[in-house]
Amino acid sequence: EMLRSFRHSPFLAAATVYDRRDVEFAAYRNGAVDATPALLRDLPLFAPLSVTRPVRYHGMALGRVVLTADTGGIRGGLLRYGALLGLASLGALVTTSLLTHRSKARMRRAEAQLKHLAYTDTVTDLPNRRCTYEALELEIATYARAGGRIGLLLVDLDNFKVVNDTAGHAAGDRLLQQVASRLHATARPSDHIGRIGGDEFAVIVAPLDDPAELERVGQRIVARLRQPLQVEGMEVMPTASIGACVFPDDARTMSELLSNADAALYRAKANGRDNVVLFEREMILATQRRARLERDLRRHLEAGLLELCYQPQYACGSRSMVGVEALLRWPHPEQGYISPAEFIPVAEESGLIVEIGKWVLERACLDAVALYRQTGTWLSMAVNVSARQLRDKDFIGIVERTLLATGMLPERLELELTESMLMEDMDGAIDFMHKVRALGVRLSIDDFGTGYSSLAYLQTFPINHLKIDRSFVRLLPTSGTTIAGAVIALAHGFNLTVVAEGVEEPEQFDWLRQAGCDYVQGYLFARPLPLAALRARMLDERTPVA
Prior knowledge:
Helix content is 47%, strand content 23%. It is an alpha/beta fold. The chain has three domains: 2-70, no CATH class; 129-280, Reverse transcriptase/Diguanylate cyclase domain (Alpha-Beta Plaits); 291-541, EAL domain (TIM Barrel). It has an eight-stranded mixed β-barrel, surrounded by five helices. Strand 12 and strand 13 (321-332) form a beta hairpin. Helix 5 crosses helix 6 (211-225) and helix 10 (352-375) packs parallel to helix 12 (395-406). The model has no long low-confidence stretch (mean pLDDT 84).
């Protein structure tokens, strides 16, 4: 009965009962349990498993029973499961490898993109400042060992800010892209071109067999850039100032090469822009002086050490004082009075001219009000406006706030603009002038006739006065009468008044008065005067209300 009950076991293959003499008493065989494949039965892993247990009855040993189990089915299942696990592991390994490879590929692409971003200008797709400087350093090291030369051109776009401010940043970016394309088309294939600043590019000319070739490359760039191009539907004639320097002739290190090329660039701008200047040793001293001037100018502006003088303007008919022009003076504590021709360009380049112009406007208005209170006479106060101020979006607000704060009469304030300044951005200048006129402030064009504007523009500009430049007045009355007479007649044709500046000789004044000039200023009548001296002269002359 016990042996028959074993048939319910799915793994029991046989059971044998032995008596106490170890003689087989009974046996059971299960033919259905034989799951081990024939090829595997001789393998130790698949051998049958036997278990012997004693048979007792009330503690008395009756014999033993031997149970034999065939585990081949289980172990085969385990083997198949293990194989499945192995395949799964192998698949996981392959998948992991593929994912790792893909991840590394993505990482390499990301690294390449980051490197591209780190070394490439996003607007022009040229090498950026970092990449260009590293290339310059490498070229210097290479040619220093070989005993060769390389050239560096710093290319600065003239009046780029005008395009950026008036047509928008998209137009500015488009202009930069077209300039980059022109640089590529003009430079040699071996040259390195990079954008190193907002409107500044660098061209590394290597190798450079002849230093004169560097200037020729620069001249080709200048000629190519000045050709007209279309930017956002607007015709632009870009020009550039270029500073050139040669290694090792002009510099022994990268820092020195960059500094000297920058000094040459500054000279190119001072020479009137749209030209190439090769570095010369004396430029180092000029650059150092400019740096000192900028530093001192900034400090002295903050300390209130700048001064205003006023040059009177007289009516040709009555010879009475009707106005003054505010002129900035800088009494340097160590160097004495520094010429405006030297420090004004420094102020323009550094951006200090905006703060200086704001101070000049406020000081001039305060002084005009003070003169009225002390003399009972309102003078016309002419204040020069720089190109930087013209582009300053807050300048109209500054003028309006200054009028309110100082009590200055708008019709007694006159802003002087130069002809060349207006021609840089015609539309922007006209918009600016209309806003100024809306405040009640008057406008004049200074140095008229020295620029390149068409006389027809006079009917477009909402101005009140024209000033004949001193370069024409100096020739009177022996020559220059044709130009001066034409300007006077033209101005009167547009209902404008005329001021002649730089009048130093009685003969000049006589000719101007007879030609119908309205006002004059110059050393013949008065030099620029401090406020106290101007007040004394007004009281002495008993100037009538103009």
